[in-house]
TrEMBL record:
A GO molecular-function annotation: chromatin binding
SUPFAM superfamilies for the chain: Histone H3 K4-specific methyltransferase SET7/9 N-terminal domain, SET domain
GO process annotations (BP): heterochromatin organization
Domain SET: 149-272
GO cellular-component term (any): nucleus
Designated name of the protein: SET domain-containing protein
PROSITE patterns: SET
Top-level division of the source organism's lineage: Eukaryota
């Protein structure tokens, strides 16, 4: 269905067309038409909320996801990524490189961490290391350079465990640490006791990440350290947030709240227990900080 102007039976000028696909999804294409072809798209919107904005044939195009989050800026040719471009990852990182026919040339790729971090990962460092239900990492003792610059783990004897601490001053809203783990379903996690769920963290309605023994100890796993952050309900200084990591994929991070964190200060998050499945044995009324 086309909404717009026809000249001599062909689409001309600004207009919009809705395309219904066989699987029930749809695409809206709106922009400037010439000779019955869309030559400049102000927006191409799909049923998942993704938006592509820019010239159709070729030129600089912007891609948005979730309606308004910028996900990509770069050159297109014949409707696909082709040439220099930048992926803007959820959480703040960027992948820069050259696309050919819609495919990123991995030899040209580099990753830039967020938050003032000067080190850039080149193609040789960008090796995918996505966890599954039984393997947390192929290189569990290979630390993340960004995280290593910002945080460290040390014992907290008065709390009976370990904690996560700022190595350098951290700014408000800065990403401090990453939280990777094996990937389990909510059914698996909810069906077992709290003693097995010390390091579980929801990734959404379908998935939970977990850092079970022996990976909960840094001599077995230190690729990410977010699971070492202790709980504080009254005065947390950081929170869990989503993050697209160049190595671990879709995980969570620990992000500083509204106030800076000083070097040497412990990083504390609210675990957000809602009581739906009870509470762990170590749980205390919301007046104390409890260590891992």
């Amino acid at each position: 269905v086309f909404e717009g102007r026809f000249v001599h039976g062909v689409r001309e000028g600004r207009g919009k067309v809705v395309v219904q696909e066989e699987d029930g999804d749809w695409i809206i294409m709106q922009g400037i038409w010439s000779g019955d072809e869309l030559v400049y798209a102000a927006d191409i919107v799909d049923s998942e909320g993704s938006v592509t904005r820019g010239p159709v044939k070729g030129g600089v195009v912007e891609e948005y996801v979730d309606g308004n989050r910028l996900a990509f800026v770069g050159r297109y040719e014949d409707g696909v990524r082709h040439g220099h471009g930048v992926i803007h990852h959820l959480g703040g990182g960027e992948t820069k490189g050259v696309w050919k026919g819609g495919v990123l040339d991995e030899t040209s790729a580099s990753y830039q961490y967020p938050c003032r971090f000067e080190q850039r990962l080149d193609a040789s460092d960008l090796v995918e290391d996505i966890s599954d239900t039984s393997v947390i990492s192929r290189w569990p003792l290979r630390p993340d350079p960004y995280e290593s610059r910002r945080v460290y783990v040390k014992p907290v004897p008065e709390k009976g465990g370990e904690g996560l601490f700022a190595r350098i001053p951290l700014l408000p809203h800065e990403v401090a640490s990453f939280y990777n783990g094996v990937r389990l379903s909510h059914e698996v996690v909810d069906g077992r006791g709290w003693e097995l769920n010390d390091n579980t963290l929801s990734l959404g309605p379908d998935e939970v990440i977990d850092v079970p023994p022996p990976w909960n100890e840094t001599n077995h796993y230190c690729a990410t350290l977010g699971h070492k952050a202790n709980h504080c309900h009254v005065a947390p200084n950081a929170k869990y947030d989503f993050f697209e990591h160049p190595r671990h994929g879709f995980i969570k991070c620990i992000r500083v709240l509204d106030a800076p964190i000083a070097a040497g200060e412990e990083i504390l998050v609210d675990y957000g227990f809602d009581g739906e499945h009870g509470f762990p044995e170590w749980w205390k009324p919301p007046t104390a900080t409890v260590a891992k």
